Amino acid sequence: MEQFVPRQKLWLEHGGKLVMSDYRLRLLQLIAETGSLAQAANAMGLSYRRAWGKVKELEANLGMQLVQSEVGGAGGGHTALSPEARELVAAYGRFLERMTAALNQAYAEELGTLASAPAERAPR
Amino acid sequence: MEQFVPRQKLWLEHGGKLVMSDYRLRLLQLIAETGSLAQAANAMGLSYRRAWGKVKELEANLGMQLVQSEVGGAGGGHTALSPEARELVAAYGRFLERMTAALNQAYAEELGTLASAPAERAPR
């Protein structure tokens, strides 16, 4: 038998509602990177209205302000993550990194040897 | 903000196909516990035919024999897990336990303090 590939999906719930996931993290990261909700929406293939709705829904479910918008000025409006959102994105990123490491280690130690065992036992 | 609840879904793929999941583990565990594919199917709300199809599909995707059937005898037929399947079920169970522990630890250390921070910072 060849090796298996371990897979995991992680998310956070709050009050029974989904408040963080790969998708939501990506949206927040893109807002932080581009400084623009319009560009973040575009990069995810979402309309501006839909991306805005996602952010507002997430803010309501988290009970936390996620974005700070500045209208106008040179070059038009700018959207930045709030300090709490930056902290959440960074912490969730560290959480994901640790869980990826844990996945690989638990797989290697519990299942990796099993997956390779039949080949080792095969007649030569 | 109240605490978040970290959630995790785990599975194994092999050759791009799903070969282990909570659902598949439960089916194999029920076969082992009841010694009967019919009882295992019933407990999962599956028809016997569908449960049998699931087992055969899983065997094909894993390249491993999972069940051993003995027809007839006192009390009728009996279905048991193969030695390899018992080993896989046990190893996957240990893998899940470790990942649950890892989830709780990574959450507590990376996100648990963040989630409780706003309340600590709230005015008294």
Explain what you see.
Chain A is of the alpha+beta class and 124 residues long. Chain A has a single domain, classed as Orthogonal Bundle (Arc Repressor Mutant, subunit A). Helix content of chain A is 60%, strand content 18%. In chain A, the strands form 2 sheets. In chain A, strands 1-2 form a two-stranded antiparallel sheet. In chain A, strands 3-4 form a two-stranded antiparallel ribbon. In chain A, α1 crosses α2 and α1 crosses α4. The longest helix of chain A is centred in the last third of the chain and has 39 residues. Chain A starts with a strand and ends with a helix. The relative contact order of chain A is 0.16. The C terminus of chain A is likely disordered. At the A-B interface, β1 and α4 of A face β1 and α4 of B.
CATH topology of chain A: Arc Repressor Mutant, subunit A
Distance between the termini of chain A: 15 Å
Strand order of the largest sheet of chain A: 1-2
Count of individual helical segments of chain A: 4
Largest interface (C-beta under 8 Å): A-B, 38 and 37 residues
- Class from secondary-structure proportions of chain A: alpha+beta
Shape of chain A: elongated
CATH architecture of chain A, please?
Orthogonal Bundle
Oligomer: homodimer
Q: If you compute it from the alpha carbons, what radius of gyration of chain A comes out, rounded to the nearest whole angstrom?
A: 20 Å
- What's the name of the CATH homologous superfamily of chain A? Winged helix-like DNA-binding domain superfamily/Winged helix DNA-binding domain
SSE topology string of chain A:
EEHHHEEH
Strand content of chain A: 15-25%
Report the count of strand segments of chain A.
4
CATH hierarchy, class of chain A:
Mainly Alpha
- Residue windows where pLDDT falls under 50 for at least 5 positions of chain A: 117-124
Fraction of residues in helix of chain A = 55-70%
Query: The biggest beta sheet of chain A, please?
Result: 2 strands, antiparallel
